[in-house]
Amino acid sequence: MEAQIEELWRTAQTEWQPPLELNQLEALRLKYLGRKGLVPALMQQLRSVDPADRPRVGALINRLKEFVEERHATLQAKLLEEQERERLAHEQLDVTLPGRRRYVGRRHPVQQMMDRALETLISMGFSVQYGPAVENDYYNFEALNFPPDHPARDMQDTFYLDNDLLLRTHTTNIQVRLLEQIPPPIRIVSPGRVYRREEVTARSHLFFHQIDGFYVDKNVSMADLFATLRQFLQTLLGDEVPLRFRPSYFPFVEPGVEVDVACRSCQQQGCALCKHSGWLEVLGAGMVHPEVLKNGGLDPEVYSGFAWGMGIERLVMRSYGIEDIRLLAGNDMRLLAQF
Ligand code: DAH
Fold first, then answer.
1. If you write DSSP's letter for every residue of 268-334 in order, what string do you get?
2. Is residue 155's pLDDT more than 70?
3. pLDDT tens digits for 280-293?
4. Distance from the CA of 253 to the center of ligand 1, in angstroms?
5. Whose Cα sits closest to atom 2 in ligand 1?
6. Rounded to whole angstroms, how far apart are CA atoms 16 and 67?
7. Where would you tag: which of 114, 176, 187, 249 has the fewest CB atoms within 10 A of its CB?
8. Strand bridging mode 127-128 / 186-195
């Protein structure tokens, strides 16, 4: 067996000589060191060698194995280095080319306005709660004192999912849910997307965004409503913004008001956005109707409250002079990239 190993030694010395390609090197590695290679075969044979001779013969095999391993590592490293040098010599790198621009995502202008409004309201002591977008008739209409034949309930205006379930038409749907769950004082604002089955035009869309505010406690007055909304709108839109409160009607408030802000698009000169009135209606508000308080389990002789609901798209359109709401719903990158 020793003669056999000597023989293999000599062959190995000649075989493991450069020049060798990477693939030849790999074939050699398999030939000697692979699972069915020459070195493992010798190890097999070692078992049948006389135990007295085994250490000596074993040492011979090990020397052969180490020789092959060393040759392989050295030759391979050299080949890889050569390859790399070759690659670098031919590679052309133009460091004056502009880098690849990474697109930076940003929040939608409607979301930005919503976040700013919520930040202001939170600073005024309100907390944020989210109502469900899929609502039943009760919380969206009935509990809010809508008469059964109110036109808003019409299939023309509301997306019904079945007889009872619908897509909320306003974020006011959270009011009676809150009354049922939270004892006064309640100071909550509720943002969300609302849905209306309307013709899509420059001024109306199938969906838009609202924030509703809801304040219920003892001794809440109309003066609180005015003061709160004035502070809120002036913080959001700038101290100088002229506001206008007008009497109005919503089934769930009494009395009700609408609030207009001066149209900025035309500096109140009149434009398509404000329908040439110089004013833009941004929110509805009022004192919470006694029926709504009762539906929420509160005694209207003891508790009172005010509420408001505002459209976000309107405010965005006003701020940037956008005259078509479809631009905000369309997700056109040419528009969105500007914010
Ligand atoms: N829900 C009304 C709408 O969508 C807005 C509104 C008016 C909300 C008066 C209120 C409110 O909470 O008190 O047009």
1. TS--TTTTTSSEEEEEEEEEEPHHHHHHTT--TTT-EEEEEEEEHHHHHHHHHT---THHHHTT-HH
2. no
3. 999 999 999 999 99
4. 9
5. 309
6. 10
7. 249
8. parallel
